[in-house]
Design brief:
Helix content: 55-70%
Largest sheet: none
Order of helices and strands: HHHHHHHHHH
Number of strands: 0
Mean pLDDT: 96
Radius of gyration: 17 Å
Low-confidence stretches: none
């Protein structure tokens, strides 16, 4: 493996771990019993996820393109802005980063899991789930949200931003998606953000945890990947 790719993979791994640590971390703070942030609500979650993306991108942009999301990596490759040979390695380290980030959330909040008896709430810290369980429409929600995300990111490549401003704009896009489109499924819009933490939930000895709900897991994987593909195809249609 060439040195350049190795550094990029480290960047994607570290960046996704930071993303999940901060993103799942706010959900843990809002959800877990006896947390000082308990009950802060959707406003805190949506804003903090946008900040998590912004900080993660700033943290590793010197190492990699900071996709931190298999749907973004796939979309960038289809749009001709990323080499196909790097797609699978990027996806694998992004998922691994998601596992590590989620494990750090578990460690950070360690005493609080014992205090929290709601198994569904505990899973919701790690993985997304639908407000109304209708798999087809849940898929559509993830599909639409990811189209907005990936098309927006591709459009940003044609725009001109002041140096260093791009991650803030990307974070703002995440906040907008969270507020406007996130209420149906919790807006994974990122297979690594859901699959990595779901794996962590399955293997870690988390007090009071229940099932990892693998029957739903295909939605936040295939929905975002399909959305990334369609967003890139739409982008390619624009001269």
């Amino acid at each position: 493996m060439d040195t350049s790719l190795t550094l990029q993979l480290w960047g994607e791994f570290i960046g996704t771990a930071i993303l999940v640590l901060l993103g799942d971390g706010v959900v843990a703070g809002v959800t877990l019993k006896k947390s000082k942030a308990e009950g802060a609500g959707w406003l805190a979650i949506a804003i903090a996820w946008g900040l998590a993306v912004t900080i993660a991108v700033y943290a590793v942009a010197y190492l990699s393109p900071a996709h931190l999301n298999p749907a973004v990596t796939l979309g960038m490759a289809i749009a001709g802005k990323f080499p196909w040979a790097y797609v699978l390695p990027y996806m694998l380290v992004q998922i691994a980063g998601g596992v590590v980030g989620a494990a750090l959330v578990w460690l950070h909040y360690y005493p609080h899991w014992q205090e929290t008896k709601d198994q569904a709430a505990i899973l919701g810290i790690f993985a997304t789930g639908p407000a109304i369980r209708r798999p087809f429409f849940n898929f559509i929600s993830e599909f639409i949200g990811t189209i907005v995300l990936v098309f927006g990111l591709l459009a940003f490549t044609r725009g001109k931003f002041t140096d260093g401003l791009n991650p803030l704009v990307v974070g703002s896009l995440i906040v907008a998606i969270g507020f406007s489109l996130g209420g149906t499924t919790g807006y994974a819009i990122n297979p690594a953000r859901d699959l990595g933490p779901r794996i962590a939930h399955a293997i870690l000895p988390i007090a009071n945890k229940g099932t990892s709900d693998w029957g739903y897991s295909w939605v936040p994987i295939l929905g975002p990947l399909a959305g990334g593909v369609v967003a890139a195809l739409l982008f390619n249609l624009i001269p």
